[in-house]
Every structure is written in C-alpha cells, then in structure tokens.
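INFO  loader      accepted 1 record
INFO  loader      residues=419
INFO  predictor   begin
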Amino acid sequence: MCHYRWLLIFSVLFATQLTAQEPLVWYTFDESDGPAVDLGIGDAADATFTASATRTSNTPSGSGMALDLTAPGLETYISAGDVAKVDTLSQFTMTTWIYLEGLNADQGGSGNVRLLAKQGVDPAYEGFSWNLNTPNEGDRAADNFRMGMFVGGEDNFGFGFSTEDLGADQEWVFVAVSYDGTTDLENLFYYVGDTENGVRQLGDPLDVFAGPLASSSGVAELGIGKTDAATGFDFSLNGYQDDVRIYGEILTADQLDAIRLENLGSNLLGDINANGSLDAGDLDALTQAINANETSSIYDMNGDGNVNAADREAWIVDVRNTYYGDSNLDGEFSSADFVAVFTAGQYEDAVADNSTWATGDWNGDGDFDSSDFVAAFTAGGYELGPKAAVSAVPEPNCLALFGGAILAMVTLVRRNAKR
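INFO  predictor   done
INFO  writer      dumping tokens
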C-alpha cells in the first residue's frame, strides 16, 4: 500500500517560499592560498589579498586559518571588487571575529580602522563602513575602543557609535552590527561575545536616519581593512579577523550566538561549520568547496588526500549515514523531503546556482531540476526508512504511481512559472 500523502505534496506547491538565514557574503579564510572564497549566496565575491595581507593559523577555534592584517602600510587589506549583492540593502547584519596585537595608529595608520566597508566618496558617501573608533571613556587601546557604523543611505548620511566600549587585546572577540533602514528609531544595534561568553547587546540601540543603503555600484569596492571613502592611510586593524559575514536581514542575539559557536571548533568529522552537528550547512559548505577546487583537509571526508565529488558522497552516505534526497536530514528519504523542496519553490526557477541541499540540489550542481531526481532515485533509498531499520522496497506499481505524480508536479511548476 502506498503512503505518499499526495494531497499534501500538491498543496505545498502553492505555499509561500520559505526563507532561511544565509549570508550574502561569507569569508572563512581557510583556503591554503589564493583569494578568500565567498561562501555566501548569490554571485561569488571572492576577495583578493594585497601584497601585505596574509593568513594566520591563530583562529578562535585553534584550527583553520584567519586573515592576518598586522603588517603596516597601505597594502594590507583584501578587496572583493564592486559587489552588487550588498548594494541597496534595506536591512543588514554583519559579523566577524577580531584579535588585536596593538593599535594601527601606532604603526602610522588610521585610528578609524575598517572592519568591513563598501562606501563611496564625498559628498554622498553611498554604502556602509563598519569601523573601530575612539572609546567613549579613557584612552584608546587594544582593550578599550568602540564600534562605529557609517551609513550612506537613500535618505541621508547617518552614523552611530556603540555607547559601551570593548576590547580585544590579544584575545578573540566576536562582534556584530545590525541596521534596519526601514525605520529611523532604534535601528542600529551592536553585539559582542567571545570564546567563552555568549553574544549580548553592546550598549544602547541607536537612532540613525539614513534609509536603505544608497547604491555604491561603480564608486566603491567591498573591502576588509580599506575604504574608498578616503585614501592615503592604512585602514586595517593591527591584528587578525576571521569568519566575516554579511546578511541581508536583521539577526537576533540568539542567531548571532549560533554563528559565534560555529567558529569554536568541533572534533566531529563532517562538521565543517563547527556547530556541533552534521547539518545541511556542512554539506553546502563542502559542496561549494569542491566546486571551488579547495584542497583543505577539513573537506576530505573519505581520507584519500583529495577533495572532490567522492567526499560529498562520503558525507551523505557514510558520515551522515543517510540517502540522496534526504533534504530535511531526518535520516530517511520520504515524501516529507518533497514537501520541503517544493515549498522552497526553486524547481527550475531559472536562477542559476541558488539552490542548496535543503531546497533540492541533491547532485551538487547548484540548481534544483530533474537531474536531482535522477541522482536521488538512482542512488535508491526512497521510503526505505532510516538505514538502521529494515524496510521493504516499494512495490513496482507504487513506484510507477509515484513517478506519475512527480511528472504531474513538474508540469504544474512549469505551468505556474510561465504565468
């Protein structure tokens, strides 16, 4: 007897597309050399290292690599070019880890260092610039400074500084900022955490009148340790940065703490995002690394010394002990997975490379289309239950019915897409 819940599957075709917190830009700096690979969604924004910028093995977790900006001078930064996907954001959240060896100003650089910036020149200063600045009280030091955010918006140029000071003197500190350009009241928040303490709000919420980001396309590049709003100074911090992210939405303190925990390491094989579990984020990061020809041993799931498609299969089949098609990663490939992927609404949506494991990209090519069904059903496992359980193979006539239903769903999706 078949138990495919056909009516439920068809009903979700008309559901609102689900959204998840995924970074637009994400640099881990874990590559052995070359550019910092962007693991965020959308068009890749890989960042090029200038002459004096390099990597360090000093990281929050003690494993992987981080960005080393300790060298003084104008050539100590990384740049991703004119990144369109961070232009004109109405809301954003930015996160990074920082570790200071001293003050950049003591090396002849600017005291207003740029953690992350894409900002044009006077008079509009379009875009954003996230900074470390002079403290509210006392002398500036590696253990005493405040954060600042400059927003060149569609309505105004606005800025706000954290009302509480912080420090990162030879210790890793997690920092974040969020800005909501849809309102003018209590719309800028700062956050802080570290390797032992969870994320908390840093100081008071601020009122910044600026509106959504004004486009900095054609006038500014996305950079760490640099800004196009001013030239002639070293704007990098005297220290290290790790795990830099930009989200196109507002994240809560709890969500930020989950990001903090991801970078504190895990001894679990396959836990690439180091959050203590084997989840879709790990598989998506592995898939992107394979497609980017990464070679770090963190991605070598089968221990053969290489990083390729075989490692992706090893993660799915051996490490996670599940099946191709198990989008919700509950340990089995069932109708619940079709509910999940068709609710996400990315089947043959004509948007290149926008799909993930959770939204139907089972074969790892970045899109959800018929080839993913081929991959899943060729591998077998549909309604076999968890691997530890003994399940009967579906009867042939039941599989035929299922195939017909899939074709019907595909036809319906295509028909709606053409309207």
